[in-house]
Amino acid sequence: MGPVMKEKVALVTGASSGIGEMTALAMSEAGARVAVGARRGDRLADLAKRAPGEVLALDLDVTDEQSCRAAVAATVEHFGSLDVLVNNAGLMLSGPIVGADTMEWTRMVRTNLLGTMYTTHAALPHLLRSKGTVVQVSSTSGRIASSGGGVYAATKFGVNAFSEALRREVTAQGVRVVLIEPGFVATELASHITDPTMRAAARDLQNSIHPLRPEDIANAVLYAISQPEHVAVNEILLRPTDQIA
């Protein structure tokens, strides 16, 4: 991509693996100074070593509002500004609604929905100053709710709704809001599913198609944020070519 993000400062949540990790690396390669947040600090330290540019590793738990505020504050204190926020931290604990462990519902709502809201709220004053960009990593599940994915879909529908309201509030002030909706991506996301039937279904799907790779999503993010200031790429929906649903 070349230095399309030269002098830009980005904060990426959920950066210890998968989409977040690849997006942080792609941004660093494009010239950005990147703060990366997650709970697995050892992985962030490894990421910082592999990135070509300066990377600030932050201990971040998006379910904790104070942790979100601290991560944004540390980013701005270290780099002097904030131009791009990538809300990527997410959790998918699929399973039927009947007989569900509702603590899993709470974890998904707190991570996927409230975590996105908390970090966005903390970052907005800085993004308004820089006329920056908010990137929300949602899902095709933010458009289509499937059996066994009711609560995950509810959180992603929520992210989509929050993002559209946010866009309407801040776009005239120069802040762009980008919604990224991937289909099936080969990441660790499905490995956290505790329901054995749903975990097996996710594994079978991955083996039956050519899933997206995290770098595919990173490329979509870079495309959106590298457009001229007067161009707002508000939504990118991307699926594996051979994924039907």
Polypeptide structure, described:
Helix 3 (65-79) packs parallel to helix 4 (102-130). It is built from seven helices and seven strands. It has one domain (9-238): NAD(P)-binding Rossmann-like Domain (Rossmann fold), CATH 3.40.50.720. It is of the alpha/beta class and 245 residues long. Helices cover 46% and strands 15% of the residues. The chain has helices spanning 18-29, 41-50, 65-79, 102-130, 150-170, 196-208, 214-225, and strands at 9-13, 33-38, 55-59, 84-87, 133-137, 176-182, 235-238. It has a seven-stranded parallel beta sheet, sandwiched between helices.
Instruction: Name the CATH superfamily classification.
Output: NAD(P)-binding Rossmann-like Domain
Q: What level of helicity do the residues show? A: 40-55%
Give the ordered list of helices and strands. EHEHEHEHEHEHHE
* Biggest pleated-sheet summary: 7 strands, parallel
- Could you tell me the CATH topology label: Rossmann fold
Q: What is the beta-strand fraction?
A: 5-15%
Let me know the average pLDDT: 94
In summary, what is this structure?
The protein is of the alpha/beta class and 245 residues long. The protein has helices at residues 18-29, 41-50, 65-79, 102-130, 150-170, 196-208, 214-225, and strands at residues 9-13, 33-38, 55-59, 84-87, 133-137, 176-182, 235-238.
Helix-strand layout with pairing:
Layout: E1 9-13, H1 18-29, E2 33-38, H2 41-50, E3 55-59, H3 65-79, E4 84-87, H4 102-130, E5 133-137, H5 150-170, E6 176-182, H6 196-208, H7 214-225, E7 235-238
Parallel strand pairs: 1-2, 1-4, 2-3, 4-5, 5-6, 6-7
Helix pairs in contact: 1-7, 3-4, 4-5
